[in-house]
Amino acid sequence: MPGWLDSSRHWVSVGAPMSWRAKGAEWLKRYGVAEVAGLCTAVLGSFAARALTGSEIAAAYGGAIGENIGYYGIIIGREVVHDREAASALGRVYGLAGAGRTARNLLFEFGAAEALDSTLLRPLAMAVAVHFFGRGVGIVVGKFAADVTFYVPVICAYELRRYLARRAEMNRLT
């Protein structure tokens, strides 16, 4: 397939659009490991908050906070490493400006969805699921229910970000 690596070292397709299967594989590669880390830290956070406070509400927020720590630890770490390597490949210093671009890109991709997810949707989904399924299974069920509402805007923002990067790269090359 014709294409090139853009300035961020992402593969940019110039030919036909990617299939849904290829897009799904790309999204799984981007978010999958972070999801596993988030699931583990969600369960730990929920159990820890419940043990410390005895409160189901605190346990729901503990699960949401725990998931954010695991999930964003992977996402941010991976993005910083990627952006530093891309800057180095272009002979640039990453520095404060690079960190600012990384933060801007992550805020664009996750900001709006995360604000609603962390403050309302995820704790609510976890609390309701724990009520119906018990602590262990409920945290997992609640997490997956919340993920549906989280990933729709996140993937839309990611794809828009990729589209804008491709367009900017094509303009730069012409």
Question: Would you kindly provide a brief summary of this structure?
Answer:
84% of the residues lie in helices and 3% in strands. Mean pLDDT is 86; it is low at 1-8. With 174 residues, it is mainly alpha-helical.
- The helix/strand order is EEHHHH
Walk across the major sheet and give the strand order.
1-2
Largest sheet: 2 strands, antiparallel
Helix proportion: over 70%
The figure for the number of domains is: 1
In terms of per-residue confidence, which ranges show pLDDT below 50 for 5 or more consecutive residues? 1-8
Average pLDDT metric? 86
Descriptive overview:
- Mean pLDDT is 86; it is low at 1-8.
- With 174 residues, the chain is mainly alpha-helical.
- Helix content is 84%, strand content 3%.
- The longest helix is centred in the middle third of the chain and has 39 residues, at 95-133.
- Strands 1-2 form a two-stranded antiparallel sheet.
- It has one domain (24-173).
- It contains four helices and two strands; from the N terminus they run ββαααα.
